[in-house]
Design a protein that fits this description.
Pfam families: ABC_tran (PF00005), DrrA1-3_C (PF13732). There is one protein chain. By secondary structure, the protein is α/β, with parallel strands linked by helices. It is elongated, with a radius of gyration of 24 Å. The strands form 3 sheets. It has a 6-stranded mixed β-sheet with strand order 6-7-8-3-9-10. The protein has a 4-stranded antiparallel β-sheet with strand order 2-1-4-5, with helices on one face. It starts with a strand and ends in a 6-residue tail after the last helix. Helix 3 crosses helix 4 and helix 3 runs parallel beside helix 5. The chain has 2 domains: 221 residues, P-loop containing nucleotide triphosphate hydrolases (Rossmann fold, 3-Layer(aba) Sandwich), CATH 3.40.50; 69 residues, YebC, transcriptional regulation domain (Alpha-Beta Plaits, 2-Layer Sandwich).
């Protein structure tokens, strides 16, 4: 990652009638990074991406890609961009090889130059044994891999991945994430959206959280976690917790939320140095038997929930 910007969005405003989809939205993606863009449904992610790609007009603001203004006629810039959409976009009438060749031809018109690129893309996504298959014969995971190959065969410098692992098996998900990391190591800048927080935390250098068309927070996963009030989550096995004891747990100053299902007590805590000690003091004082106990640090899901008031899938 460098200090140079691959994508710079400044004070972007996009309206649909009376609705403001993007409200003075700012974004700065550095060249060479994997950048996570997170937001609940309707937050403005897709609108922002379509504006960056010059697929939508906007009301105010500026967009620059690799230091140059991005317009509908910026064909030289567009040749440097690859898009892997959430919805698989391939032709059912064409084979795997033919699909990749077609999408590559949109950027590389000479067939002789395309042939090695197509072969490299097929190998990169592991579809060598399926090159003559049509999409209808591929599993969901293989179809996602084909979708990726179609978007990256022309070797773009900037790649947008929009939910690339939706509804795929764990093996294919791991292969896709490893592939994205390899593309990045080879020099591509990546903008990545996902509803899977563990993926974002695994591969993204920095993460931006947005909602209602606005920039809410930006940083590494650890930096984002340090911005919130939520601390650890504690889970305790106990079979004899009374309503009175549960009320006493909820009354502790550091407890944000405490739930009990008859077997497990789950507590979401604020940051503190003695949370677990104080909690166990309440339970032992009430004579509750304590079994297995776990304490987990805050997650990106906690960050997202506290900043937006919603789960990512809402």
């Amino acid at each position: 990652m460098t200090t140079e910007s691959a994508v710079t969005v400044s004070k972007l405003v996009k309206r649909y009638g009376d609705m403001i989809a993007l409200d003075d939205f700012n974004l700065d993606v550095k060249t060479g990074e994997i950048f996570g863009l997170l937001g609940p449904n309707g937050s403005g992610k897709t609108t922002a991406i379509n504006c960056i790609l010059a697929l939508l007009t906007y009301d105010a603001g500026t967009i620059r890609v690799f230091g140059q203004p991005m317009t509908p006629n910026s064909y030289a810039l567009k040749r440097r961009i690859g898009i892997v959409p959430q919805n698989v976009a391939v032709f059912n009438e064409l084979t795997v090889s033919e699909n990749i060749d077609y999408f590559c031809s949109l950027y590389v018109p000479k067939k002789a130059e395309r042939e090695p690129l197509v072969e490299e893309a097929i190998a990169f996504v592991g579809l060598q044994d399926f090159r003559t298959f049509r999409p209808g014969k591929l599993s969901g995971g293989l179809l996602r891999r084909l979708n990726i190959a179609c978007g990256i065969a022309h070797k773009p410098d900037l790649i947008f991945f929009d939910e690339p692992t939706v509804a795929v098996d764990p093996q294919s998900r791991n292969a896709i994430l490893e592939g994205i990391t390899q593309l990045n190591k080879a020099g591509a800048t990546v903008i990545y959206t996902s509803h899977y927080m563990e993926e974002v935390e695994q591969i993204c250098d920095r993460i931006l959280i947005m909602d209602h068309g606005k920039h809410l927070a930006l940083g590494t996963a650890d930096e984002l976690k340090s911005m919130i009030d939520t601390g650890e989550r504690i889970t305790i096995e106990t079979l004899d917790l009374t309503d009175t004891t549960l009320d006493n747990v909820r009354a502790l100053a550091f407890v944000i939320e405490a739930t009990y299902n008859g077997r497990e007590l789950n507590i979401r805590c604020r940051r503190g140095d003695h949370n677990l000690v104080d909690l166990l003091g309440i339970l032992h004082g009430a004579g509750a038997n304590v079994g297995h106990l776990t304490s987990q640090p805050p997650t990106l899901n906690d960050v997202f929930l506290e900043m937006t008031g919603k789960a990512l899938r809402d």
